[in-house]
Amino acid sequence: MGLSGKKVVKLDIKFPGDVLHGLFRYKLADLLIIAPEYLKTCELQEGEWGAVGSIIKWDYVLDGKKQGLKHNIEAVDEINKLITFNIFDGDLMRVYKSFKAHVQVEGTGDSSTVTWTLEYEKMNEDVPDPDSIVEVAHNVTKYVGTRLNPDSVANIKIPQLQ
Hints:
19% of the residues lie in helices and 43% in strands. The protein is α+β, with helices and mostly antiparallel strands. It has a single domain (4-148), classed as Alpha-D-Glucose-1,6-Bisphosphate, Chain A, domain 4 (2-Layer Sandwich). A seven-stranded antiparallel β-sheet has the order 1-7-6-5-4-3-2. The chain starts with a strand and ends in a 15-residue tail after the last helix.
């Protein structure tokens, strides 16, 4: 088996696509309220929320253990509602040479499809595939649709939508 891999998780949720894309780009810290069992802290370390090149630090729980990471927003494609996060520091980087997460939102009405694509290169063949991370991405996305009150959507201030 190779050291490079890709995992994809796709989820349909009842949530407006434009607002969801804005949440993943500009309001990542709001995910702490939505999934506190997984996400513990989210800090902007450099740049501006949503800007390419900005650096964000997370503390999160994976497999019952508190972990941390830093990522930057590597690219944003507004037309395709696609954001690429490049993880460059933290616990994941002890076992992966590289790790990127792409999140794409399709749909503009009341329902959306969210696709997470994780691309990674393991340090060695003993490193497991990131199935736990796939599970977290799936659950956090699902929680957006079930835990975030649709009536509060109007209160989320997203710069591109104002």
